Write a sequence for this structure.
């Protein structure tokens, strides 16, 4: 239900019976339509038949996404995760359609939110003046600004919608059933394993105590680095379904004031962002895997030496098995050195690479060489990517487009299974970091930044 006069919802529908009928019906309809389209093109030429099937699949995928979008709650977040990480497991038609799912949603009205706060915080709610207008609303919850009465401290309350956490498993099961009913995805072991990874990610998203713990850890890790701000967690106002942190103001990354900064200030922000990514990979082994720009703000400080990156939302932080971190670090080292033998050596022992022919691994290595181009020696970089100071021009480089084109050509020549999910997360993180560099039009020499981290990696490898 919604309140049209206030532009808000009374509640988010999370009951399985309210959602199952819609999803089952949608899956059956899409499956029937797809089967009918296939039957109708049965006697066409193979190329025509394939084209018609893809067109029909695209139409039915869009229909299914429209039905998913109506249900809100964890359904939307599940769809977004499938779009972001599903390229190796789902047909392109489904991932393209799921990218249309919008996480911005009508907020729950404050009366409903106040009930949640009263239940979760009890008498502690009287310590706070909570702004009834949310700072933002998404599929799993919304955020409100608050002020602590005794000292005026500005706080931020992330409030989970009632029933969302309990609906994760049933919602994912229904979406999986929907995809199977619609016959839009191959039923393979890799597909089933990936679905379980989506389940794990969803449970992390709604686990506020875990997010609070992770936020504290990153706050401590970055406490001495003036380039970064991580909110402080307030345990006395945090519960299983409410996360309270300090309110940390800032501007979106693509805000006109950020984009209008002098080149050197934008370059400093770019180097800080890359340095944070390098620490996650080479030092901490924990990575913020969600590349969403909404997880970062920029705090401008014209009176100080450096502007700051405000890091928000640590629900998608993951730690990785040591063997996968060794692989990521070794591949980065080999790409940095443009060392093909070292690259092929690093790939040994991993099924994803072992099942490729040598030519396939070499093609994949060339893709990695291109991906690390911003860190390469000037003589190994396309001339149009460098300015007169030999700085890498991210916006002009078109690196993302060139890498995607090479990846597509590589895929047509090499038959390989889905990559380890951890590499998939690192890849998405890399794309997010590179997009940030492009948006702010960074022009930097990034190679010196990576050298000390590689030196630490080499030293640790020799002593282990």
């Amino acid at each position: 239900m919604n309140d049209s006069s206030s532009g808000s919802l009374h509640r988010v529908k999370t009951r399985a019976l309210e959602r199952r009928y819609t999803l089952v019906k949608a899956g059956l309809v899409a499956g029937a339509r797809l089967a009918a389209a296939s039957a109708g093109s049965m006697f066409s030429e193979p190329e025509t038949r394939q084209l018609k099937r893809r067109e029909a699949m695209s139409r039915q995928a869009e229909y299914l996404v429209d039905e998913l979008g109506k249900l809100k709650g964890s359904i939307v977040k599940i769809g977004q995760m499938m779009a972001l990480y599903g390229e190796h497991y789902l047909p392109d038609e489904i991932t393209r359609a799921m990218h249309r799912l919008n996480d911005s949603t009508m907020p729950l009205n404050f009366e409903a939110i106040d009930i949640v706060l009263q239940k979760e915080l009890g008498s502690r709610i009287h310590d706070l003046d909570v702004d009834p207008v949310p700072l933002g609303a998404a599929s799993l919850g919304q955020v409100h600004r608050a002020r602590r009465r005794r000292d005026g401290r500005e706080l931020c309350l992330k409030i989970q919608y009632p029933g969302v956490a309990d609906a994760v498993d049933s919602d994912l099961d229904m979406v999986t059933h929907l995809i199977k009913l619609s016959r839009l995805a191959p039923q393979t072991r890799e597909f089933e394993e990936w679905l379980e990874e989506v389940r794990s990610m969803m449970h992390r998203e709604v686990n506020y105590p875990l997010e609070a713990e992770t936020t504290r850890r990153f706050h401590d890790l970055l406490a001495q680095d003036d380039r970064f701000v991580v909110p402080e967690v307030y345990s006395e106002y945090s519960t299983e379904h409410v996360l309270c942190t300090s309110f940390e103001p800032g501007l979106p990354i693509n805000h006109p004031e950020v984009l209008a900064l002098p080149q050197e200030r934008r370059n400093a922000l770019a180097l800080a962002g890359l340095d944070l990514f390098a620490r996650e990979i080479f030092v901490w082994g924990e990575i913020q895997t969600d590349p969403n720009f909404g997880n970062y703000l920029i705090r401008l400080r014209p009176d100080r030496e450096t502007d700051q990156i405000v890091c928000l939302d640590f629900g998608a932080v993951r730690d990785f098995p040591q063997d996968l971190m060794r692989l990521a670090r070794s591949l980065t080292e080999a790409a940095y050195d443009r060392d093909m033998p070292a690259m092929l050596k690093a790939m040994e022992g991993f099924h994803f690479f072992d099942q490729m022919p040598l030519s396939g691994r070499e093609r994949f290595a060339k893709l990695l060489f291109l991906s690390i181009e911003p860190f390469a020696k000037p003589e190994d970089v396309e001339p149009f990517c460098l300015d007169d100071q030999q700085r890498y021009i991210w916006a002009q480089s078109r690196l993302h487009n060139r890498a995607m084109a090479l990846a597509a050509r590589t895929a047509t020549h090499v038959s390989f299974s889905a990559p380890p999910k951890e590499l998939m997360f690192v890849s998405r993180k890399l794309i997010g970091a590179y997009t940030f560099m492009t948006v702010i039009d960074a022009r930097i020499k990034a190679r010196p930044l990576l050298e000390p981290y590689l030196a630490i990696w080499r030293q640790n490898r020799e002593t282990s």
About this structure: The chain is about 55% helix and 10% strand. Residues 16-40 form the longest helix (25 residues). The chain has a mean pLDDT of 83.
